[in-house]
Amino acid sequence: MCLIVFDWRPQASTGALFTLAANRDEFLRRTADPMQWWADAPELLAGRDLVGGGTWLGITRDGRFAALTNYRAPHEMRPDAPTRGTLVSDWLSSAPGERGTPLDYLQQVARTGEIYNGFNLLIGDFARRELGWYCNRSSAAPVLLEAGTHGISNAVLDTRWPKLVKKRAELAAFVQDGQIPALAQLIGMMRDPRLARDDELPSTGIPLERERALSAAFIDTPEYGTRGTTALRVSVAGNTLSVEAAERSDDNGSHRVTRPGDFERTYTFDATA
């Protein structure tokens, strides 16, 4: 994942508790399964990286959630570092309670965080109304997030990169006053190919031409780009969490890339709050 915007309302007694829109950016040659229930972890709904074996975003039938973005630091990349996607799948495929609370798990990850290339990790347990964040390239300790609309790209939480600022504001407008946008609207919002102006670009150690290309919310280059867009909403009513998930990707499940992607999958299910 390379761009995630989300609205978090842990005190909600009815309506949307969590609303997310996210783009996964990856090399087009890297094979992955689309979002689906995993055969070897049937409570887990997620895509699957067929190279590293983990995932970038997923949710379980008991309301646990995780998502990850890479931290852009090209001069610090180590080819021998362990895959970061297992940080997501390890939380989601474990038995309920096995890894403690979201903050417990993030603190566990932080103890060995230096062995990985840079990442941001979101870990949630919606039944507990807890959502935490940790970045292994930040001096900040793992933390539970308060209510608000946030964004993560390839720097720390809420870094003011142009595409993050723009999509975070668009999501905030969608959900203001308790509005419930359709998941298709959230997906459409993220599939925006407009580039930032040069004077808005961050400096992350890559050539200017590539910095420009990566400034779009929806990235499309010959070898690398946005491979899929996910929209997720978790709503609460009494003791029930209702989960709605949708994915639009460039892979129909055959592991062949077709650009632009228009293969869609949707899932709905209830979890106990």
UniProtKB/TrEMBL annotation:
Bias type Basic and acidic residues, positions: 245-267
Pfam families: TANGO2
Annotated region described as Disordered, given as residue ranges: 245-273
InterPro entries: TANGO2
Signal peptide: none
Protein name: NRDE family protein
